[in-house]
Amino acid sequence: MKTEGGTTEQKRRAGEAAAAHVEDGMVVGLGTGSTAAHAIRALGSTVDGGCEIHGVATSFASKMLAREVGIPLRSLDTVEELDLTIDGADQVVTETGACIKGGGAAHAREKIVASISSELFIVADPSKVTETLDRSVPIEVLPAARTSVTAALTKHGGTATLREATKKDGPVVTDNGNFVLDCSFGAIGGPRSLGETLSSIPGVVEHGLFTGLATAVYVGTAKDVTCYEIDR
Ligand SMILES: O=C(CO)[C@H](O)[C@H](O)COP(=O)(O)O
Q1: Atom of ligand 1 at shortest distance to CA of 1?
Q2: Active-site entry in 9, 23, 52, 110
Q3: I need a labelling partner for 228 at 20 to 30 A (CA). Which of 10, 45, 124, 126 fits?
Q4: pLDDT tens-digit readout, 194-215
Q5: ipTM of the complex
Q6: In this structure, what are the phi and psi dihedrals at residue 74, rounded to the nearest 5 degrees?
Q7: Is 110 one of the annotated active-site residues of the chain?
Q8: Which residues are annotated as part of the binding site for substrate?
Q9: pLDDT digits 0-9 by tens, 111-135
Q10: Dihedral of CA 21/94/89/204: which sign?
Q11: What domains are defined for the chain?
C-alpha cells in the first residue's frame, strides 16, 4: 500500500484520532489509502470491543481490509446517507478542507460517499498539508473519452497524462472500469471553480478536487495529532 511522504506513525495517529469519534449505531464511510487504512483497523478494534457500526467501502481495497478486520459492510448502492466518513488526501488545505484526492484512483466513489456523509474527516500526515493546491488532479474518464477529455483539459490550461499501471501493461483501470488522467494545472487559485469546469467536460466521470465537503482535518505528527475544524 502507498506510504509516500509521511511516516506510518504520523498516519496511524491521524487515522486513530478520527476513528475515536465513531459511536455505536453509526454508518461510516471507509476511505481508501494508507492513512485511511489505519482508521479502518482502529474501527475493527472498536467492533471487536462490541461497538455496533456498519461500514461503506470506497474501493475494493477498503472493502477487503474492512472484511479482514471484521467491520460489517453495507453496499454503497443501498445507502442514502452516512454519519461520518474518514478518508485520506494527497494534498489538503487545513483552513478550508479543500483537497486533492485520487492517488489510489478511488476518488469517484470517495466523493459519492463524502457527499452523503454528515461529517467528512480527512486524515493526513504533515507532508500533505499545503497553503495552495498544486499537485496533479486525478480525473477518472470513460475510456472512449480519454482523447477528447485530454484535448479539453489542454484548452483549460492543463497538461494531462494517462495513468499507467505498474504491475500490468497499459493504463490503470479503476474499480468502475475507467481510466485516470493526472492533470497538472500548476497552483490552483480557485479549486471550486476549476472543479466545476472539470465536471462540465463530457466523458469526465469524476475529478479529485474535493471542496465544501470536509468538516475536519486530522494531521498526525510523530507525537500527537492536530485537528482543524472546518466550517462548511
Ligand atoms: O484519495 C485517495 C485514494 O483515491 C487516498 O485517500 C489518497 O491517495 C491518500 O492516500 P495515502 O493516505 O496512502 O497517502
Answers
A1: 13
A2: 110
A3: 45
A4: 999 999 999 999 999 999 999 9
A5: 0.99
A6: -115, 150
A7: yes
A8: 32-35, 87-90, 101-104, 128
A9: 999 999 999 999 999 999 999 999 9
A10: positive
A11: 8-130+211-227 (3.40.50.1360), 137-206 (3.30.70.260)
